[in-house]
Amino acid sequence: MSDTNIAGNIIQILAGLPEFLRKPMLKNRLIEFFSLPEDEKKETITNALNAALTIDFNILSNLVKTWMEVLCEFDEEKRRAMFGAYLNVIIASPDIIAELNIDGLLSVFNALSDQNKQLLQKSLHSLLNTLASDGRAKLVNAVPENARKILDL
């Protein structure tokens, strides 16, 4: 079984759990993620993004929403580290954005509390301001117009 299939199975199992179980499990996974070496973070994110493409979005959206909420419970440094790890993978393979359900992801983002949306936007903007101009341009060009507006990129 490939790493993407394993990641997909894990994602489906987590997404299918009730929120009171899913939230603490995700929080523990994020704590573990932050302690991984950079190469393992990259592999984890690559597998998660590839697996996300194979999962019904109605199932995936539960997990993404909980992930965003849990991420908001961490401090700015951790949120930036998470977004930075994702951005590094996306900048290296910007075509992955075209394959994701961006409208669905934006819907999930818009369903968050205003406070959580602001926390995530602040962390993302702070991180984007530190990117080299070529990396930032590559990323912004890969993100669809509607997402750029909502995320204020």
* Helix run count: 10
Low-confidence segments, ≥5 residues, pLDDT <50?
none
- How many structural units, i.e. domains? 1
- Structural class comes to mainly alpha
Estimate the global geometry from the Cα principal axes: globular
Report a brief summary of the structure.
With 153 residues, the chain is mostly helical. It is built from ten helices and no strands. The protein has helices spanning 3-16, 19-34, 38-52, 57-72, 76-92, 95-99, 102-110, 114-128, 133-142, 145-150.
What do you see in this structure?
It is a single chain. The chain is mainly α. It has one domain. Helix content is 80%, strand content 0%. The chain has 10 helices and no strands. Helix 4 packs across helix 7 (102-110). It starts with a helix and ends with a helix.
Describe how the helices and strands are arranged.
Blueprint: H1 3-16, H2 19-34, H3 38-52, H4 57-72, H5 76-92, H6 95-99, H7 102-110, H8 114-128, H9 133-142, H10 145-150
Helix pairs in contact: 1-3, 1-4, 2-4, 3-5, 4-7, 5-8
Which properties best describe this structure?
153 residues, 80% helix, mainly alpha, globular
